Amino acid sequence: MQDLTVTLVQTKLYWENVQANLNELEEKLWTVHQKTDLIILPEMFNTGFSMDAQRLAEPMNLTTTKWMKQMAAQKKAVICGSFIVKEKENYFNRLLWVEPNGTIHHYDKRHLFRMAGEHKHFAAGSKKIVVSLKGWNICPLVCYDLRFPVWSRNTNNGYDLLLYVANWPAARQSAWNTLLPARAVENLCYTIGVNRCGEDGKGIAYQGDSSVHDYLGNNLLHMGNEESISTVSLNREKLMRYRQKFPAHEDADGFEIIG
User: How far apart are CA 141 and CA 209, in angstroms?
Assistant: First the structure.
């Protein structure tokens, strides 16, 4: 059972400026000299949380996708984060999971943040994904998904790590800091949240507070509210021993998601 090394990138973002964000993030990633397996970027890391989907969307395999593939290959690590993707007539807040060999998996944000009108500009995703890395099963989700425990439920211990990429405003940071460890405890898994910091083009402040929690909800890493990059190692053997000692998953309620 191999440990998993994960790097969290908590950063300010240039408002609706794809090239500026990609250039800045590339410089930041080149400061990561420690070997890592997975690099996590925030939600909409190339634009900030914008509803101008029609102007900012890219098709798959254009600028941002190519940049992610290039960085994954150069860093020899998986890179994930979300940005605005156009597919046929729909726009998605799409998380890409890009492997060093160029393989791509994606997840479309299921729960669209109606208080910002996201549901008026984007189509909702319809299914979760679980990806594998070094023997770990990992479930990547996006921001507002954090508020909906049924969607993230770890049925039969199907994943070992639950992660959220986010643009979570400072005004609701108490919910962020409460729900991340809650998801870890209820799902018997490690949980990671990567949030941006700074202020966006609409004057909305973001606290950061990117963090890593173990299966007991213990805080393994907390990044505060400044720009920073942190790397943490996760131990799967300890997780498996705990699941054997405390098999709460065997008493979980069965359910089916409809719609």
Answer: 17
